[in-house]
Amino acid sequence: MEFFFLIVLGFFVGGFINLLSDVLPYRQSISRPRYPDGTTRPVSGWISVLAFILKKRSSPNDPSSKLSWRYPIVEIATAGLFVITYMLSKDISDISTPQLLFYLVHVSLLILITVIDIEHKLILFVVVLPSIALALLDALILPSPTPNIRDSLVGAGLGFGVFFVMYQGGVLFNYVMGQIRQQDLPTAFGYGDVMLITFTGALLGFAHTIIAIFIAVFLGAFGAIAYLVIRYFLRGGYNAFTALPYGPYIVIATLVMLLYGDPIRVMMIGY
Question: Taking the model in full, what pTM does it have?
Fold first, then answer.
């Protein structure tokens, strides 16, 4: 029964994430879900999985205006991560129902950040700043399991400090290379990524954040190399200064440490 409830909840939350992903980057007010051409979707099509099943993927006014596969993928991924979060939380003996609810909200915010970053190369302060505040609130009122508020603040400071230095280094590198090449170059990652890793630190605490940073940097390097190799073989060349969204790597590292942090920490650090 719990799994069925979580799956249904995940579909509804995933639908809301899709809605926010459509309106927040354009600073639009939240309204009823719409097709790409602006036509309001019927109630039976608010959940995209149902819209695909019931053949309501396309706008009635313009059959070529279709919901992308992003919509059902986000809903299915949200439902799946809700179930995984619940299953893993049962292994923690002292976890409470309020803590589980916090975890589900954190997971939802990470999914929202990922979707917007992939589609728009933006990490919106209107999303990440409340996420940081919520992580600190979680640590303040529910310090068990870790982190407590002190560890949360230290983790947030660590994440911000490390990535702020990297961000400034990237700005300096791009300035120098831009002067040499006589063109404006995109930064490796933006200030939004700095705030995202700050959210990671507030959510995970000091020790887990150290590992999350390592994972994020490794995944970012691996992803960039894989992208360049694939682009080279498919198109016969590549642009070494292509801007790639870095946020998804931070999100993956955060989710890994949020859900599997203790065994990974013991394996890597020894305590």
Answer: 0.92
